[in-house]
Amino acid sequence: MNATLQRTLQVNGRQINTDSEGYLLDLSDWSEDFARALAKQEGLTLTPAHWELIHFLRAHYQEHGVQAQV
What we know:
By secondary structure, this protein is of the alpha+beta class. The protein contains two helices and two strands; from the N terminus they run ββαα. It has a two-stranded antiparallel sheet with strand order 1-2. The N and C termini lie far apart (about 30 Å). About 0% of the residues are buried. The mean pLDDT is about 90.
């Protein structure tokens, strides 16, 4: 049996479950605060350019139900 390794990320006093690569296990847990917390954990500071891309990718997923192709 393949068990998915899980991690949790503290966001606004709430534990958010992710897989071992940081992907949300429950997509409804996504928020800008989650994105900031994940970026901080990875040692990143999100710039306006990052947010533009994040918002584009989220809108694409919401419209098409799949990730945008790279």
